[in-house]
Amino acid sequence: MKKTYKNIILILGIVTCSTLFYQFTSVHNQTAETTFYIKNIDFCGERVPLEIIDVKERLDREMVVNINLHSATTLIIKRANRYFPDIEPILKRNGIPNDFKYLCVIESSLTNATSSAGAKGFWQFMPDTAREYNLEVSSTVDERYDVIKATEAACRYFKKAYAKFGNWTLVAAAYNRGMAGIERQITAQGVTDYYDMYLNDETSRYVFRILALKEIMTSPDKYGYVFSKDELYHPVKTKTVKINSNIDNLQTWALEQGINYKLLKLYNPWLIDTSLIVKENKSFDVLIPTEGFKRK
Length: 296
Prior knowledge:
This protein is mostly helical. It folds into two domains: about 40-230, Orthogonal Bundle (Lysozyme), CATH 1.10.530; about 240-290. The protein is about 55% helix and about 5% strand. The chain is built from eleven helices and four strands, in the order αββααααααααβααβ. It has helices at about 1-35, 55-65, 70-95, 100-110, 125-130, 145-165, 170-175, 180-190, 200-220, 250-255, 260-265, and strands at about 40-45, 45, 240-245, 285-290. The strands form two sheets. The chain has a two-stranded antiparallel sheet. It has a two-stranded antiparallel ribbon with strand order 3-4. The longest helix has about 30 residues, at about 1-35.
């Protein structure tokens, strides 16, 4: 009996070791399959000079980091299927290159994030900058959380920056460092190309993070991110209710629209209080979901 018991333990040990070895080699093989070598890449049609050693290595760093941020990159790819259809037409209508949608990705991972400095929304506007570009930030409304309006505001910034620099790569860098900050470095260093500038670590990495996400999200299968259509997050059908007067209780108002307060907040995160104050000559479009919330 004891001998049989020992044999069982021995067999279980062999099976366990074999399983662990298989899992290790599988992971190793998957990692090997996601190795990469990028010969050419551009931002908004502006060539990235990968023949410069530090430029090549800075891109490599961001590729390695983001390929291996599995959970974060997975969620970004899934969210993009929902939000890019809203963002892309606004960029196009304003004459902004499509690559700027990836700037939005690195700013917020396509969520209504809040930074430690107080920047908010998909495009991470600070309060004063938001107001400068015609977004309302008040006690009941914060339009930094409105993807459509915030994207329009970002486009206004990009156009202003492009008029100053005449270069889309510098426009992207300026979104992080500020137009004045980039202008100071151009004057101080005597160079006009982002890839020739010595910048702080965050701005130095900024454009390369955009490039890495562009590459990964353009060819996700190549880097091990494979999803069926059902796994992606899809746009939700909504109807629009125009509001041009105050609403004292949004929780009650939501019920009157056939939804609940949770859904009202999910699809209108710019409503930051339980009431809505509408200024004179102002109106708001409130989105009411028409699918995906009723129990079977």
